[in-house]
Design goal:
Largest interface: A-B, 93 and 90 residues
Strand order of the largest sheet of chain A: 1-3-2
Number of helices of chain A: 7
Shape of chain A: elongated
Radius of gyration of chain A: 21 Å
Largest sheet of chain A: 3 strands, antiparallel
CATH architecture of chain A: Orthogonal Bundle
Pfam family, one (chains A, B): MarR_2
InterPro entries (chains A, B): HTH_MarR-typ, MarR/SlyA-like, Tscrpt_reg_MarR-type_CS, WH-like_DNA-bd_sf, WH_DNA-bd_sf
Order of helices and strands of chain A: HHEHHEEHHH
Keywords (chains A, B): DNA-binding, Transcription, Transcription regulation
Oligomer: homodimer
Protein name (chains A, B): MarR family transcriptional regulator
CATH class of chain A: Mainly Alpha
Structural class of chain A: mainly alpha
CATH superfamily of chain A: Winged helix-like DNA-binding domain superfamily/Winged helix DNA-binding domain
Distance between the termini of chain A: 67 Å
Strand content of chain A: 5-15%
Number of strands of chain A: 3
DNA sequence: GAAATTACGTCAATAGTACTGACATAATTC
DNA sequence: GAATTATGTCAGTACTATTGACGTAATTTC
């Protein structure tokens, strides 16, 4: 009963390895790294009754204040219905406000409130600490390498989403106003 | 109605930025990278009616053939009940077999079948391709830097999980207890 | 000015992954 | 024999996500 049924395939007892030309080492590291990376804010979010979805919305609204619902959907790659509940909760709890679009009054521009800004920072803080520690461990000069690697991991056609970020150390961006 | 209610906080119109001492650049890159990294296998999994959870189980059973249910739970950081359904499906579809533990017959050692090995490879292939391309983009010599960075992103007390990776071919360093 | 399109919101139903708590069984250990 | 351990399973719940349908208001098109 606990042994494989007669029809079932035989157990393979050798470990899959990088020999197969596949980079299991980094695949696995990426899994572990992301697992622990998200565990930090998850704990804070739980106190608010929020989940990871709230974090993502909060993050991008703070990064790109004034983005519309449609733009947010495009960045998150989720559906309108999935966003609806999460966004409503963030608005109801006064973390995000909607402002009627100036050009097109059908649009709702999304902005963080002071409360929403504060929460976004609180969530990012432990993640940033973890990154800083990891950068130090791996030699502080290697930041550019890691940034380039992560960017290269994103689908080329979606890399535009990254460049829309607000002004930062890197030069390229549009004049946000 | 679409405007902020009187009681609500005022919209903040400036973007949050790295000035706040927080590394939003890498936080965001990590999100995008992981989003697209998981999208590759997700498409294959959908054909089987499987989800991301199946992938993770399949991955680790292939990486560490013979691991027990308890060990798997510890690596994945999920509960027994969450694993149950996923593992059952993988066993029912003949991707994984259970073998009674040799020393302790209560234990079920988990092994991939040929079918399970093939699927694990198929799922890892596009991910590995993406990693290879990203490594090339960021300069092939930088692999060690990125590996160290990702490892440093994992909680120190959980880093042991990474070292349990299989012996490449044989001769494993099984630091038993 | 009427019609079509767009942006957004909402309702209903469903799925996948996770959770807690409780209980059962078999094997091992004390 | 009793306690503990490894595993399996049941019931109930939560969160995030899905598709499809429909409504409303604003803009665009003809």
């Amino acid at each position: 009963m606990t042994d494989p049924s007669p029809a079932a395939g035989k157990p393979i007892r050798t470990a899959i390895a990088d020999e197969d030309g596949i980079d299991f080492a980094i695949i696995e590291l990426f899994f572990f790294a992301y697992r622990d990376f998200t565990s930090d804010p998850d704990q804070i979010l739980a106190e608010y009754g929020f989940g990871r979805a709230h974090h993502r919305v909060l993050h991008f609204v703070n990064r790109r204040p004034g983005l519309t619902v449609a733009e947010l959907l495009d960045v998150l790659k989720i559906t309108k219905q999935s966003l609806a509940r999460v966004l409503k909760q963030l608005i109801d709890t006064d973390h995000i406000v909607q402002v009627q679009g100036p050009r097109d009054r059908r649009q709702r521009e999304l902005y963080p409130t002071a409360k929403g800004r504060a929460l976004a920072l609180a969530l990012a803080r432990p993640q940033s600490r973890r990154i800083r520690a990891a950068l130090e461990d791996s030699g502080a000069t290697e930041r550019a390498t890691i940034e380039r690697f992560l960017e290269a991991m994103v689908n080329p056609e979606l890399r535009a989403q990254i460049d829309i970020v607000p002004a930062q150390t890197s030069g390229k961006n549009h004049g946000d106003h």
